User: What shape does this take?
Amino acid sequence: MNQMPKLSSARLTAQSHFRTLRLGTPFQPRIDALMKTNDWYDWGGYRAPASLWDEELEYFAIRSQAALFDISPMVKYRIEGPDGEDFLNRVTLRDVAKLKSGRVHYTAWCDDEGYVLDDGTLFRLAPDRFRLCCQERHLPWLLDSAIGFDVSVLEETEAVAGLALQGPTSVAVLREAGFAGVERLKVFDLAEFPHEGGRVTISRTGFTGDLGYELFAPAELALSLWDRLWKAGELRGIRAIGYTALNRARLEAGLIVANADFVTAEHAIRPDRVRMPDEIGLGFMVDLEKGHFNGRRAIAQARAKGSMRHVLVGLEIEGNIPAEHAIVYHKQKKEVGLVSAAIWSPMAKRNIALASLSRPYGDTITDDLWVEIYAMRELRYERLMKRARIVPRPFIKLDRRTASPPADF
Assistant: This one.
């Protein structure tokens, strides 16, 4: 009788430890060399840094210097063909006909019931060539939706490396790196620049609410692009950062994250967890004049009937203890919602949060709101009820984000 070979204890340990593959991005050698904290997280199967050296100082690098963040794990689709515009108009909320070549817009897409599948950025690289960037993978859905359109859809996540360069000195770094004319880009503009015999696409976009840019290049040019920026930024205070710092900045900017501030329709298990665009602050995207698109009928009916069940709001909370995942109450008694993200904002000098509330709370009833916070004090948790008030988003607004041309620090 055949016997299974015995494995050594060392091999058993190796096989049972970290069974899930952690992919490396094209920039991984540079990030690994800078990693001091060994603080990693899983971003779509990639080993991504939550912080590299000091999460507090990484945040301040965004706000006072130039911060470099690897966005290569972001899912990227190349969509091209004569029917590219019509196809994207069919699946996304905004009118793609209004998106000119060399421009980017923030958009979202829904299922047939009008519930948000994801949000992301759409780059119009040419009249019939687009790049769609998002959090989740949607290739089967996009391919099914493309039936009948003269269009090709290809995922290019691994083939295209991406960097976010954010902060007040970001434009100075790009100019020092030799990207001549980059200062002429206005918010949501994009342009191509030569690099090492290839091309780099640079857009004036970002997830920080600050002056910033995103760069996309073929994966084989990634390390030389990183080195070019790093050398140019030596005297401009360039720093590599992780997601924790970026998350603080995006919250100050009032920006939402899929499956953090709302559950996408494909991930939701319970039917009351899904959200329509109006329920998460994306109602401004919905263009009912452009013709049919996924979820159009359901969204229009919900608006006509006034049947939206939720609203996402910005909160300012008394005190300085972040209220992340705190329950929101009306008159300290009735549970009306939940905080999805919260920080003490160094820029706004306020305790801020994003919260999803059940209507009419946050809609017609906006007063006497409270959050329940459990704070650790001398090795014991204390229950604190803190008053909260609804405030506009973004929580901070920096003039340098939209200045044209931006200041050259």
Q: What stands out?
A: The chain has three domains: 23-74+159-252, 75-155, 277-391. Confidence is low (pLDDT under 50) at residues 1-18. The longest strand covers residues 334-345. Residues 192 and 238 are 22 Å apart (CA to CA).
